Amino acid sequence: MASPALNDQQKHEVMTFREQVVAPSMDKIVILDFFAEWCGPCKQLMPVLEKTSRAYAAKGVELVKIDVDKNEFIASQFQVRSIPTVYAVHKGKPVADMTGARTESQIAELIEKLIAQYQVNPVATS
To answer: Out of the domains of life, which is the source (predicted)?
Structure first.
């Protein structure tokens, strides 16, 4: 993803993305929510994503929110054309487009399938 032609902002976006999304996705399913503060549908979907992600956290699911206005380079790499756009990421790669899922039950069903398909192990609780 990174190239020598990246400016400082783009380098920061890539570094942050690697830390917050790629690294955790090596052993988890990361739900990647592209949103904007001004987006009405984003504001409606976000609480549903947050609740569902919390419910599946112990099964290896994590939610990461990416503000498209502050992370234009990352949004462009994912070819985000409208928001909200939601992907599931595992092992550093998008494995499912979850954008069409809007209800808690639809999101939960997709998460269950992804956990089974990618054999994500539950996170050990301390």
So the answer is: Bacteria
